[in-house]
Amino acid sequence: MCIMSHDWKASVTVAAVIERGGRFLLVEEETPDGLRLNQPAGHLDPGESLIHAVIRETLEETAHTFEPRALLGCYMARPHSAGTAARPGGDITYVRFAFTGELGALDAGRQLDVGIVRTVWMSADEIRACPERHRTPLLLACIEDYLAGKRFALDALYTHPSVVGGGVLS
């Protein structure tokens, strides 16, 4: 039996893997470790499904609507850096649900989320060439799975109504 630190926690995140013409939509964002690249991604908020979370996060970080078509996969990783006194990381494991789908309309007047500097389109080779700029090792793992054709039906995910404001489980 493995004994984990009492400070361990899992953090659920979502990410959108969006490809057009051989290039992938990424965001360049300010992090405590400097400017980093990531897919449009973020944390699952209370009261929302995974699908609603990825739609929201994509809009907030790119100003584009997003329609998920498939679950790409579920991934786990620990952060590149352990944290600092100003930003204690603790022992966090990120559980990422990555989706692929259709990028929709741009809301040109919409401000990008705090910390997002810009959106960029990069080829898989360009992404592979700069691992030091990746916010997470999951960035490239998701790209490689997308290119390998991995896809799962969205109905593989179930959200009980108690999560989104319905009945409460006892």
From TrEMBL:
GO molecular function, one term: thiamine diphosphate phosphatase activity
InterPro entries: NUDIX_hydrolase-like_dom_sf, NUDIX_hydrolase_dom, NudJ
Alphabetically ordered keywords of this record: Hydrolase, Magnesium
Enzyme class of the recorded protein, top EC level: hydrolase
Pfam families given in the database record: NUDIX
Domain called Nudix hydrolase: residue spans: 7-144
Domain of life: Bacteria
PROSITE patterns: NUDIX (PS51462)
Cofactor entry: Mg(2+)
EC number(s) given by UniProt: 3.6.1.-
Assembly with partners or alone: Monomer.
Family: Belongs to the Nudix hydrolase family. NudJ subfamily.
PANTHER family named in the record: NUDIX HYDROLASE 23 (PTHR43222), PHOSPHATASE NUDJ (PTHR43222:SF11)
Name assigned to this protein: Phosphatase NudJ
